[in-house]
Amino acid sequence: MEFKNNTIHLNIPEGEVLIDENVYLDLSSYPLDAYIKDKSILKVSLKNLLNATVVKKQKGFDFNLDTKNLNSIVSILKESYEIGSLNDLKIDNDSMLSIKGFFENKDRLFMQIDTQIGKLTYKGITVKNLSATLPIIIGVDLSKTGQLNATSDIYKKTIKISSSILAKNSRICLKADIESKNPVVKNPIEICANLKNKTLITKGINLKLKTSIGYLKTHITRIALKNSTATVKGYINIEAFDGRIAIKNISLSLKEMPILRMDVDFSHINLEKLTNLTNFGRITGFIEGYAHNIALVNFKNPLSFDVLVKTQSVKGQTKKISLKAVNSISKVGGGYVSIAIPFFKSFSYSDIGFRASLKNNIFTIHGLYKDGNVEYIIRRGFLGGINVVNMNTNNNISWDDFLSRLKRVLEKREVKR
Fold first, then answer.
1. Domain residues of the chain, as ranges?
2. Whose CA is closest to 324, among 349, 346, 340, 341?
3. In degrees to the nearest 10, what's the CA dihedral of 315, 316, 322, 327?
4. Assessment of whether the complete model's pTM goes beyond 0.70
5. Spans in the chain with pLDDT lower than 70
């Protein structure tokens, strides 16, 4: 440490630093060099990592930070805060980030973020030649423009993003044009955020995307973010298995743990095409139904749902089910199988139908068709076929137990010759 001309110079070439009780820095990798002048100017340099300057003003302070090593910063944040979602994020060395502006209090702030990244990859997404200027204004009488441009490869589909940004009066709006060889976006995407009220509104988003199972189309008229919850006005349609799957009433809670909520309706789903993708067993015919009150924690772990599935009558369509599929259904649902003609490997049926729900980690399933006290999951036709009867009308099991049953059914087993 050195004192000279109202300046304190601090140089630490090695050692360890803990910031905010989480961020750990090894100074042998990033030597620290800092200056404090006239008790109003602070300059900090972490070699090979970043440079920062803070200047105290009569009201608040000015700040400036820049780095040409985004990859190392991402690694430090990932390790310090145990952010597992960053494990698949990779940024090449041809990258930079600059943040500058001034701060008076939480209601008066100006900040401009500039970044250039040659290549960024995250799971199946690659972004190239990313260039962005993002102005952020809160409570300050300023108007600034920015931009965001990039080329992206998303699951083998190349798109080009060109957008303009306008920040004014605590609002920031982005208007993006998305181009591709086979257009997936029918109109520009417009997103506006009110930084003071912490609300976000997205205007019409119309997408069309071909997936491995069919076409995905969206008609989103508005996305609003308020009180850490995003609500979606509009719907997502998936054309698959000769039918239609509609996703609606979508919302996302971004509080302590993200919870995605939605309702799904489906119709004219071809069971033969669906079951051919699994080891469940072959079923022909069509179904319709819904899955409502879906809540997914961390986007994948079910918290609740209410499901109804039933046969949909389609003229001229035969309804057959293999013995393997019958056994799968009885194992998963806890049913009893009654076969009118037991020496065939596939059977006719009249109806398939059940209700299922998940609440408080308890999974419940009931046959949809009743005859007195008998509850059917599968009902045979008039002349013969197969019945699957739900023998336990209080069929409550833990969700983990149900998943274990389903996993055992879907596991592929080697056939002994």
1. 1-48, 69-178
2. 346
3. 20
4. no
5. 1, 84-85, 154-156, 181-187, 333-344, 382-384, 391-393, 395, 409-417
